[in-house]
Amino acid sequence: MLEINTQLTNKIILVTGAAGFIGSNLVLELIRTQSPCTIIGIDNMNDYYDVSIKEYRLQQIESAVKDSDSTWTFIKGSIADRALIDDIFATYKPAVVVNLAAQAGVRYSITNPDVYVESNLIGFYNILEACRHSYDNGETEVEHLVYASSSSVYGSNKKVPYSTDDKVDNPVSLYAATKKSNELMAHAYSKLYNIPSTGLRFFTVYGPAGRPDMAYFGFTNKLLKGDTIQIFNYGNCKRDFTYVDDIVEGVKRVMQCAPEKVNGEDGLPIPPYRVYNIGNNSPENLLDFVDILQQELIRAGVLPEDYDFEAHKKLVPMQPGDVPVTYADTSALERDFGFKPSTSLREGLRRFAEWYKEFYL
Description:
single chain, alpha/beta, Rossmann fold, seven-stranded parallel beta sheet, two-stranded parallel ribbon, 11 helices, 15 strands, about 15% strand, globular
Protein backbone atom coordinates (compact mmCIF):
# COMPACT_ATOMS: atom_id res chain seq x y z
CA MET A 1 0.00 0.00 0.00
CA LEU A 2 1.02 3.56 -0.65
CA GLU A 3 1.88 5.79 2.28
CA ILE A 4 -0.11 8.94 2.90
CA ASN A 5 2.02 11.92 1.82
CA THR A 6 -0.65 14.60 1.39
CA GLN A 7 -2.58 15.50 4.51
CA LEU A 8 -6.04 16.98 3.89
CA THR A 9 -6.70 18.48 7.32
CA ASN A 10 -5.71 22.13 7.61
CA LYS A 11 -5.37 22.28 3.82
CA ILE A 12 -7.04 24.40 1.16
CA ILE A 13 -8.86 22.09 -1.26
CA LEU A 14 -10.43 23.16 -4.56
CA VAL A 15 -13.27 20.96 -5.84
CA THR A 16 -14.59 21.79 -9.31
CA GLY A 17 -18.07 20.55 -10.19
CA ALA A 18 -18.88 20.94 -6.49
CA ALA A 19 -22.66 20.99 -7.04
CA GLY A 20 -22.42 17.84 -9.14
CA PHE A 21 -23.22 14.33 -7.99
CA ILE A 22 -19.72 13.16 -7.10
CA GLY A 23 -18.40 16.62 -6.25
CA SER A 24 -21.03 17.43 -3.65
CA ASN A 25 -20.69 14.02 -1.99
CA LEU A 26 -16.92 14.45 -1.87
CA VAL A 27 -17.26 17.85 -0.19
CA LEU A 28 -19.62 16.35 2.39
CA GLU A 29 -17.17 13.53 3.10
CA LEU A 30 -14.26 15.94 3.51
CA ILE A 31 -16.29 18.06 5.93
CA ARG A 32 -17.22 14.94 7.90
CA THR A 33 -13.79 13.32 8.07
CA GLN A 34 -11.06 15.87 7.33
CA SER A 35 -12.02 18.92 9.40
CA PRO A 36 -10.67 21.43 9.81
CA CYS A 37 -10.06 22.15 6.15
CA THR A 38 -10.88 24.95 3.75
CA ILE A 39 -12.92 23.87 0.75
CA ILE A 40 -13.44 26.04 -2.30
CA GLY A 41 -16.16 24.81 -4.65
CA ILE A 42 -16.90 25.98 -8.17
CA ASP A 43 -19.79 24.94 -10.43
CA ASN A 44 -21.50 26.64 -13.36
CA MET A 45 -24.93 25.27 -12.29
CA ASN A 46 -25.90 24.60 -15.90
CA ASP A 47 -29.32 23.22 -16.80
CA TYR A 48 -28.16 20.00 -18.44
CA TYR A 49 -30.43 18.45 -15.81
CA ASP A 50 -32.79 19.71 -13.07
CA VAL A 51 -30.95 22.53 -11.28
CA SER A 52 -33.06 22.00 -8.16
CA ILE A 53 -31.09 18.80 -7.49
CA LYS A 54 -27.84 20.78 -7.62
CA GLU A 55 -29.33 23.36 -5.26
CA TYR A 56 -30.40 20.55 -2.92
CA ARG A 57 -26.84 19.20 -2.87
CA LEU A 58 -25.45 22.65 -2.03
CA GLN A 59 -27.99 22.96 0.80
CA GLN A 60 -26.73 19.65 2.20
CA ILE A 61 -23.21 21.06 2.21
CA GLU A 62 -24.31 24.32 3.86
CA SER A 63 -26.02 22.33 6.63
CA ALA A 64 -23.02 20.06 7.17
CA VAL A 65 -20.42 22.81 7.34
CA LYS A 66 -22.34 24.64 10.09
CA ASP A 67 -21.61 21.75 12.44
CA SER A 68 -17.92 21.45 11.53
CA ASP A 69 -14.64 23.30 11.96
CA SER A 70 -14.21 23.57 8.18
CA THR A 71 -14.91 26.53 5.95
CA TRP A 72 -16.78 26.34 2.66
CA THR A 73 -16.80 28.90 -0.15
CA PHE A 74 -18.92 28.38 -3.24
CA ILE A 75 -18.26 30.20 -6.51
CA LYS A 76 -20.76 30.06 -9.37
CA GLY A 77 -18.77 30.03 -12.58
CA SER A 78 -17.23 27.94 -15.34
CA ILE A 79 -13.79 26.36 -15.37
CA ALA A 80 -13.69 27.43 -19.03
CA ASP A 81 -13.38 31.02 -17.76
CA ARG A 82 -9.58 31.37 -17.64
CA ALA A 83 -9.58 34.67 -15.75
CA LEU A 84 -11.87 33.26 -13.06
CA ILE A 85 -9.74 30.14 -12.57
CA ASP A 86 -6.54 32.18 -12.39
CA ASP A 87 -8.18 34.48 -9.84
CA ILE A 88 -9.32 31.54 -7.68
CA PHE A 89 -5.82 30.06 -7.64
CA ALA A 90 -4.24 33.44 -6.89
CA THR A 91 -6.72 34.23 -4.12
CA TYR A 92 -7.03 30.88 -2.35
CA LYS A 93 -3.81 29.05 -3.30
CA PRO A 94 -5.25 25.51 -3.14
CA ALA A 95 -2.89 22.70 -2.08
CA VAL A 96 -5.09 19.92 -3.47
CA VAL A 97 -7.21 20.26 -6.60
CA VAL A 98 -9.97 17.79 -7.50
CA ASN A 99 -11.32 18.44 -10.99
CA LEU A 100 -14.78 16.87 -11.26
CA ALA A 101 -16.31 19.61 -13.43
CA ALA A 102 -17.15 18.19 -16.85
CA GLN A 103 -19.97 17.92 -19.29
CA ALA A 104 -21.16 14.37 -18.73
CA GLY A 105 -23.17 11.96 -20.84
CA VAL A 106 -22.37 9.91 -23.92
CA ARG A 107 -25.51 10.57 -25.98
CA TYR A 108 -25.62 14.31 -25.28
CA SER A 109 -22.13 14.61 -26.80
CA ILE A 110 -23.56 13.51 -30.14
CA THR A 111 -26.10 16.36 -30.27
CA ASN A 112 -24.23 19.07 -28.29
CA PRO A 113 -20.50 18.64 -28.93
CA ASP A 114 -19.60 22.29 -28.28
CA VAL A 115 -20.15 22.12 -24.51
CA TYR A 116 -17.84 19.09 -24.24
CA VAL A 117 -14.99 20.93 -25.92
CA GLU A 118 -15.60 23.99 -23.73
CA SER A 119 -15.78 22.26 -20.35
CA ASN A 120 -13.80 19.04 -20.79
CA LEU A 121 -10.95 20.37 -22.93
CA ILE A 122 -10.65 24.14 -22.48
CA GLY A 123 -11.79 23.96 -18.85
CA PHE A 124 -9.33 21.20 -17.97
CA TYR A 125 -6.54 23.06 -19.81
CA ASN A 126 -7.26 26.09 -17.60
CA ILE A 127 -6.96 23.94 -14.48
CA LEU A 128 -3.65 22.49 -15.68
CA GLU A 129 -2.26 25.92 -16.47
CA ALA A 130 -3.30 27.24 -13.06
CA CYS A 131 -1.62 24.25 -11.38
CA ARG A 132 1.50 24.87 -13.45
CA HIS A 133 1.73 28.53 -12.48
CA SER A 134 1.21 27.72 -8.80
CA TYR A 135 4.91 26.70 -8.97
CA ASP A 136 6.03 30.10 -10.27
CA ASN A 137 8.77 31.88 -8.31
CA GLY A 138 9.77 28.72 -6.52
CA GLU A 139 6.42 28.24 -4.77
CA THR A 140 4.80 24.80 -4.55
CA GLU A 141 1.12 25.42 -4.04
CA VAL A 142 -0.55 22.44 -5.71
CA GLU A 143 0.62 19.23 -4.08
CA HIS A 144 -1.78 16.94 -5.96
CA LEU A 145 -4.19 17.25 -8.88
CA VAL A 146 -6.88 14.56 -8.96
CA TYR A 147 -9.25 14.55 -11.92
CA ALA A 148 -12.20 12.59 -13.25
CA SER A 149 -11.73 10.38 -16.24
CA SER A 150 -14.30 7.78 -17.27
CA SER A 151 -14.80 4.12 -18.09
CA SER A 152 -15.94 5.42 -21.50
CA VAL A 153 -12.28 5.66 -22.56
CA TYR A 154 -12.27 1.86 -22.98
CA GLY A 155 -14.67 2.19 -25.92
CA SER A 156 -15.59 -1.16 -27.40
CA ASN A 157 -12.58 -3.05 -26.02
CA LYS A 158 -13.34 -6.75 -26.16
CA LYS A 159 -11.05 -7.71 -23.27
CA VAL A 160 -12.69 -7.64 -19.83
CA PRO A 161 -12.26 -6.65 -17.11
CA TYR A 162 -10.94 -3.31 -18.28
CA SER A 163 -7.43 -2.63 -17.01
CA THR A 164 -5.57 0.67 -16.94
CA ASP A 165 -2.82 -1.22 -18.80
CA ASP A 166 -5.13 -1.68 -21.80
CA LYS A 167 -4.77 0.47 -24.90
CA VAL A 168 -7.57 3.05 -25.09
CA ASP A 169 -7.04 4.62 -28.50
CA ASN A 170 -10.44 3.95 -30.05
CA PRO A 171 -13.14 6.07 -28.35
CA VAL A 172 -16.70 5.58 -29.62
CA SER A 173 -18.05 8.97 -28.48
CA LEU A 174 -16.79 12.55 -28.24
CA TYR A 175 -17.30 12.38 -24.48
CA ALA A 176 -14.90 9.43 -24.29
CA ALA A 177 -12.42 11.25 -26.53
CA THR A 178 -12.41 14.29 -24.23
CA LYS A 179 -11.76 12.11 -21.18
CA LYS A 180 -8.89 10.30 -22.88
CA SER A 181 -7.57 13.75 -23.86
CA ASN A 182 -7.64 14.77 -20.18
CA GLU A 183 -5.37 11.87 -19.32
CA LEU A 184 -2.95 12.77 -22.11
CA MET A 185 -2.92 16.46 -21.16
CA ALA A 186 -2.34 15.63 -17.48
CA HIS A 187 0.54 13.33 -18.43
CA ALA A 188 2.17 16.06 -20.50
CA TYR A 189 1.89 18.61 -17.68
CA SER A 190 3.16 16.09 -15.13
CA LYS A 191 6.18 15.46 -17.34
CA LEU A 192 6.87 19.09 -18.24
CA TYR A 193 6.20 20.75 -14.90
CA ASN A 194 6.49 17.88 -12.36
CA ILE A 195 2.86 18.27 -11.26
CA PRO A 196 1.67 15.19 -9.32
CA SER A 197 -1.60 14.10 -10.95
CA THR A 198 -3.93 11.14 -10.65
CA GLY A 199 -6.76 10.33 -13.06
CA LEU A 200 -9.74 8.25 -11.97
CA ARG A 201 -11.83 6.26 -14.42
CA PHE A 202 -15.30 6.11 -12.85
CA PHE A 203 -17.71 3.28 -13.70
CA THR A 204 -21.48 4.05 -13.85
CA VAL A 205 -21.90 5.99 -10.61
CA TYR A 206 -25.35 5.91 -8.99
CA GLY A 207 -27.07 6.77 -5.72
CA PRO A 208 -29.36 9.31 -3.99
CA ALA A 209 -29.56 12.77 -5.60
CA GLY A 210 -27.74 11.42 -8.63
CA ARG A 211 -27.93 12.52 -12.25
CA PRO A 212 -31.42 12.30 -13.77
CA ASP A 213 -29.92 11.41 -17.16
CA MET A 214 -28.64 8.09 -15.76
CA ALA A 215 -30.73 4.99 -16.49
CA TYR A 216 -31.89 4.20 -12.93
CA PHE A 217 -33.13 7.77 -12.42
CA GLY A 218 -34.70 8.12 -15.87
CA PHE A 219 -36.41 4.74 -15.55
CA THR A 220 -37.91 5.78 -12.22
CA ASN A 221 -39.25 9.06 -13.64
CA LYS A 222 -40.84 7.28 -16.59
CA LEU A 223 -42.34 4.43 -14.60
CA LEU A 224 -43.89 6.91 -12.18
CA LYS A 225 -45.54 8.73 -15.11
CA GLY A 226 -46.72 5.48 -16.66
CA ASP A 227 -44.37 5.80 -19.62
CA THR A 228 -42.52 2.90 -21.27
CA ILE A 229 -38.83 2.43 -20.47
CA GLN A 230 -36.44 1.36 -23.22
CA ILE A 231 -33.82 -1.25 -22.36
CA PHE A 232 -30.99 -1.05 -24.87
CA ASN A 233 -29.27 -3.91 -26.69
CA TYR A 234 -32.37 -5.97 -25.91
CA GLY A 235 -31.29 -6.17 -22.29
CA ASN A 236 -27.90 -7.66 -23.09
CA CYS A 237 -25.88 -4.75 -21.71
CA LYS A 238 -23.85 -5.12 -18.55
CA ARG A 239 -22.74 -2.22 -16.37
CA ASP A 240 -20.32 -2.04 -13.46
CA PHE A 241 -22.65 0.02 -11.26
CA THR A 242 -20.66 1.80 -8.52
CA TYR A 243 -22.35 3.39 -5.52
CA VAL A 244 -21.42 7.03 -4.98
CA ASP A 245 -20.13 6.53 -1.40
CA ASP A 246 -17.64 3.97 -2.71
CA ILE A 247 -16.49 6.39 -5.41
CA VAL A 248 -16.02 9.17 -2.85
CA GLU A 249 -14.07 6.93 -0.45
CA GLY A 250 -11.77 6.01 -3.33
CA VAL A 251 -11.27 9.64 -4.33
CA LYS A 252 -10.50 10.65 -0.74
CA ARG A 253 -7.86 7.94 -0.37
CA VAL A 254 -6.27 8.84 -3.69
CA MET A 255 -6.14 12.54 -2.76
CA GLN A 256 -3.89 11.68 0.18
CA CYS A 257 -1.31 9.81 -1.91
CA ALA A 258 0.24 12.08 -4.52
CA PRO A 259 2.60 10.36 -6.99
CA GLU A 260 6.19 10.87 -5.87
CA LYS A 261 8.46 13.29 -7.70
CA VAL A 262 11.55 11.39 -8.83
CA ASN A 263 14.12 11.86 -11.58
CA GLY A 264 15.06 9.27 -14.17
CA GLU A 265 18.53 8.18 -15.25
CA ASP A 266 18.69 11.20 -17.56
CA GLY A 267 18.24 13.53 -14.60
CA LEU A 268 14.83 14.65 -15.88
CA PRO A 269 11.59 14.15 -13.96
CA ILE A 270 9.70 10.89 -14.39
CA PRO A 271 6.09 12.07 -14.71
CA PRO A 272 4.44 11.88 -11.24
CA TYR A 273 1.31 10.50 -12.87
CA ARG A 274 -1.13 7.66 -12.20
CA VAL A 275 -4.51 6.44 -13.47
CA TYR A 276 -6.89 4.12 -11.61
CA ASN A 277 -10.24 2.46 -12.22
CA ILE A 278 -12.88 2.95 -9.55
CA GLY A 279 -15.66 0.46 -10.19
CA ASN A 280 -17.56 -2.27 -8.42
CA ASN A 281 -15.64 -5.05 -10.22
CA SER A 282 -19.01 -6.81 -10.63
CA PRO A 283 -21.00 -5.99 -13.80
CA GLU A 284 -24.76 -6.44 -13.62
CA ASN A 285 -27.08 -7.34 -16.49
CA LEU A 286 -29.49 -4.50 -17.29
CA LEU A 287 -32.55 -6.74 -16.99
CA ASP A 288 -31.47 -7.85 -13.50
CA PHE A 289 -30.77 -4.23 -12.62
CA VAL A 290 -34.28 -3.17 -13.72
CA ASP A 291 -35.79 -6.05 -11.73
CA ILE A 292 -34.02 -4.98 -8.52
CA LEU A 293 -34.92 -1.32 -9.16
CA GLN A 294 -38.63 -2.13 -9.51
CA GLN A 295 -38.60 -4.16 -6.29
CA GLU A 296 -36.96 -1.31 -4.38
CA LEU A 297 -39.30 1.32 -5.84
CA ILE A 298 -42.26 -0.72 -4.62
CA ARG A 299 -40.65 -1.27 -1.23
CA ALA A 300 -40.06 2.47 -0.82
CA GLY A 301 -43.62 3.30 -1.82
CA VAL A 302 -42.62 5.13 -4.98
CA LEU A 303 -44.71 2.71 -7.06
CA PRO A 304 -47.79 0.65 -6.06
CA GLU A 305 -47.40 -3.05 -5.29
CA ASP A 306 -49.56 -4.08 -8.26
CA TYR A 307 -47.56 -2.05 -10.81
CA ASP A 308 -47.44 -3.85 -14.18
CA PHE A 309 -43.79 -3.62 -15.17
CA GLU A 310 -44.03 -5.90 -18.17
CA ALA A 311 -46.47 -3.47 -19.80
CA HIS A 312 -43.95 -0.63 -19.38
CA LYS A 313 -40.78 -2.31 -20.66
CA LYS A 314 -39.52 -2.35 -24.25
CA LEU A 315 -36.35 -4.05 -25.47
CA VAL A 316 -34.61 -1.97 -28.17
CA PRO A 317 -31.30 -2.03 -30.14
CA MET A 318 -28.04 -0.49 -28.96
CA GLN A 319 -27.74 3.31 -29.03
CA PRO A 320 -24.89 5.08 -30.91
CA GLY A 321 -21.90 5.66 -28.64
CA ASP A 322 -22.92 2.98 -26.14
CA VAL A 323 -20.91 -0.13 -25.35
CA PRO A 324 -22.27 -3.58 -24.42
CA VAL A 325 -20.29 -4.01 -21.20
CA THR A 326 -18.29 -2.05 -18.62
CA TYR A 327 -16.22 -4.00 -16.13
CA ALA A 328 -13.49 -2.53 -13.93
CA ASP A 329 -10.25 -4.25 -13.01
CA THR A 330 -9.71 -2.65 -9.59
CA SER A 331 -6.61 -4.64 -8.59
CA ALA A 332 -4.33 -1.55 -8.70
CA LEU A 333 -6.73 0.38 -6.44
CA GLU A 334 -6.80 -2.54 -4.00
CA ARG A 335 -3.00 -2.91 -4.09
CA ASP A 336 -2.18 0.77 -3.56
CA PHE A 337 -5.00 1.83 -1.23
CA GLY A 338 -6.35 -1.37 0.34
CA PHE A 339 -9.78 -0.42 -0.94
CA LYS A 340 -12.40 -1.95 -3.17
CA PRO A 341 -16.00 -0.73 -3.64
CA SER A 342 -18.35 -3.08 -1.85
CA THR A 343 -21.91 -1.64 -1.81
CA SER A 344 -24.32 -4.13 -3.37
CA LEU A 345 -26.63 -3.00 -6.17
CA ARG A 346 -29.71 -3.75 -4.06
CA GLU A 347 -28.42 -1.73 -1.12
CA GLY A 348 -27.51 1.20 -3.35
CA LEU A 349 -30.81 1.21 -5.24
CA ARG A 350 -32.70 0.94 -1.94
CA ARG A 351 -31.04 4.16 -0.72
CA PHE A 352 -31.84 5.83 -4.03
CA ALA A 353 -35.51 4.77 -3.92
CA GLU A 354 -35.87 6.04 -0.34
CA TRP A 355 -34.30 9.37 -1.30
CA TYR A 356 -36.51 9.66 -4.40
CA LYS A 357 -39.64 9.15 -2.30
CA GLU A 358 -38.52 11.85 0.14
CA PHE A 359 -37.44 14.36 -2.55
CA TYR A 360 -40.25 14.04 -5.06
CA LEU A 361 -43.33 12.53 -3.42
